[in-house]
Specification:
About 25% of the residues lie in helices and about 30% in strands. It is an alpha+beta fold and about 350 residues long. The longest helix is centred in the middle third of the chain and has 17 residues.
Length: about 350
């Protein structure tokens, strides 16, 4: 398979398959197994990171001096909940894990447990006829989940709770699904393996599915320490600004191509900058291969990429634009995923520039 053969139409079944596997942050075992199977099928040498990240090496893996050493990472974990209290009448109280989107939660279908099919449940919502004057959006602290009272004995305290899998093709390349942040990034990794299965890259390419991005980012820390790459490319969901209430906030839109992010920041010292030479390399590569890309700098978003800076690893973030991030359904444009695959493959086919040349 050549990079130009990556078709947007190939992603919906892959996204549906990956999104159906539970993987709450801290509970990524099943999605790790699924991703490892894809990596092995493509001929990767697969090992586990200290916290359960999936590490697959391709290329000249038996040569300790092989260069370049490029890591491509996507986090496997998702936001969700842990059960905190179980009542005999089938009411569960929960604690959120990661940044759940409280405004989108009332009435959402969920599943309890990480085994198929899980115990079904519904996040409670007060009937509109009982709405109170001046009532604001639902608070995470007020959340409860209704399940079959006959099943409560099967639900232990701290059982993981995730959104029930759904997929909604919307036409014109748009696709809505559960946990596209970041199963869309995982799908990009799988698509890259299909190219690696037929090609021998220069040096060593390491694909990593990381754990705990939504809560700690420690999975990426330990995986990168073990791999020690020359450069790291992170694939993750990012923001789009193409709905009526967001158009004034930025220029990124679905279908405009993957986003080469320059800067992320949340609070305090929790920020990240793309390594200038590596980001410029990706911009030049995209231009040379006529791959559409977008650019952004974001306040209020963070990713595993921040771990690379702390380890001194040059890094870039290839963002997949999404609407409704962290809601039970998120929306992407399939062309953006296909272009992200083309871009990463084009980088893997070319020598890295001197990333340490800062001009002094």
């Amino acid at each position: 398979m050549t990079a130009s053969m990556i078709a947007a139409e190939s992603f919906p079944p892959l996204l549906a398959e990956l999104s159906a596997v539970p993987g709450l942050a801290g509970h990524e075992g099943r999605i790790g197994q699924a991703l490892a199977a894809f990596f092995r099928q493509a001929g990767g040498t697969v090992t586990a990171g200290p916290l359960g990240s999936v590490i697959a090496r391709f290329g000249d893996v038996n040569n300790p001096g092989a260069t370049p050493r490029i890591a491509v990472l996507a986090h496997m974990d998702t936001v969700g909940f842990l059960v905190k209290q179980v009542s005999a009448d089938g009411i569960l109280r929960v604690v959120p894990v990661g940044g759940v989107n409280a405004r989108a939660l009332p009435g959402a279908a969920v599943r309890i447990g990480d085994r198929d099919p899980g115990i079904p449940g519904v996040i409670g919502v007060r009937s509109q006829h009982l709405a109170r004057s001046g009532e604001g959006p639902a608070s995470v602290e007020d959340l409860y989940i209704q399940v079959d009272p006959a099943r409560v004995a099967d639900i232990p305290i701290t059982a993981p709770v995730t959104y029930a899998p759904q997929s909604v093709p919307l036409g014109d390349g748009l696709y809505a699904g559960t946990y596209l942040d970041n199963r869309a990034g995982c799908a990009v990794l799988v698509a890259i393996t299909r190219w690696l299965a037929d090609h021998s890259p220069a040096g060593v390419v390491t694909l990593i599915g990381t754990v705990q991005e939504e809560t700690t980012c420690y999975g990426a820390v330990h995986a990168l320490q073990r791999v020690a790459p020359d450069a790291a490319i992170f694939i993750d969901g990012t923001l789009s600004y193409d709905t009526p209430e967001t158009q004034h906030l930025g220029a990124v839109r679905l279908g405009g191509g993957p986003v080469l992010t320059a800067f992320l920041y949340t609070s305090g010292l929790n920020g990240w900058h793309a390594q200038p030479a590596l980001r410029a390399h990706l911009l030049r590569t995209a231009s040379a291969h006529e791959i559409p890309v977008q650019q952004d700098a974001i306040r209020g978003l963070m990713s595993d990429a921040r771990t690379a800076a702390g380890l001194g690893v040059p890094s870039v973030l290839v963002g997949l634009p999404m609407r409704g991030k962290h809601a039970p359904l998120e929306t992407v444009h399939l062309d953006d995923l296909a272009h992200a695959v083309r871009l990463v493959i084009a980088v893997l086919e070319r020598p890295l520039p001197d990333l340490m040349d800062y001009g002094f």
